[in-house]
Amino acid sequence: MPKGTTKRRPRTLARLLDAALEVFAESGFGAARIEDICRRAGYTRGAFYSNFSSKEELFFALFDAHAARELERIAQLAARTEDRDLSPERIAALLAHIEPDERTWFLVTTEFTLYAIRNPGAAARLADHDARLREEAAALLGALLARAGLEPRGELTDLVRVVVALREGALGQSYVEPEALQPAALTERFLPHLLEAVTKPVTKPL
């Protein structure tokens, strides 16, 4: 492959991903056309198919990128927090934080989830990506709890499922009633109580 093409590929990918995020948010996954994404990115269909085989593959590239950013954000904030400050309230605050542009991703992922529920093949692929994200999130949450001297009463991956359900459910309500409910408000209020209820002090060997 020519060197120029190799150097341009990351830029092409980034523009396609940015364009897809905008088009998916505006039109919905089902209604979005590859032509619309290419036009928004300033590329031809050839450029699209040189990087992705389908809209689904493009969505999952967005999914993985978003997941990586969220996990990295939490990890960086956790690294700057002293162990003595890692209470359930502080851990909840790390998990509940919402970036200003999260509304766009919420629209995209909610729309795709509905699409996946109606399409078993897409549902299986989404479940696979969700499972990988849960494993990484569980490892990160487990490390935070251990630093705080806590351990889960059950499976960490189940706890991650509940945290995600609370976070996304609260987000949906806040985006419907933005003046009545700030995006992170419910999660920040109730997640500390959840963490306290489903954790216990680390059992020290006798």
Extended strand count = 2
Helix-strand string: HHHHHHHEHHE
Radius of gyration: 20 Å
The CATH architecture designation of the largest domain is Orthogonal Bundle
The third-level CATH topology of the largest domain is Tetracycline Repressor, domain 2
Helix % is over 70%
Give a quick account of the main beta sheet: strands, pairing sense, barrel closure: 2 strands, antiparallel
Structural domain tally = 2
Query: How many helices in DSSP terms?
Result: 9
Low-confidence stretches: none
Q: Strand order within the widest sheet?
A: 1-2
Shape field: elongated
List keywords for this structure.
206 residues; mainly alpha; Tetracycline Repressor, domain 2; two-stranded antiparallel sheet; 3% strand
State the gist of this model.
This protein has 206 residues and is an all-alpha fold. The chain has helices at residues 3-27, 34-41, 45-51, 55-79, 88-96, 102-118, 120-147, 156-176, 185-197, and strands spanning 150-152, 199-201. The termini are far apart.
What does this structure look like?
Residues 10-70 form the HTH tetR-type domain. This is Fatty acid metabolism regulator protein. Pfam families: TetR_C_6 (PF13977), TetR_N (PF00440). Keywords: DNA-binding, Repressor, Transcription, Transcription regulation. This protein is an all-alpha fold. It has two domains: 1-52, Arc Repressor Mutant, subunit A (Orthogonal Bundle); 55-201, Tetracycline Repressor, domain 2 (Orthogonal Bundle), CATH 1.10.357. It is built from nine helices and two strands. Strands 1-2 form a two-stranded antiparallel ribbon. The radius of gyration is 20 Å and the shape is elongated.
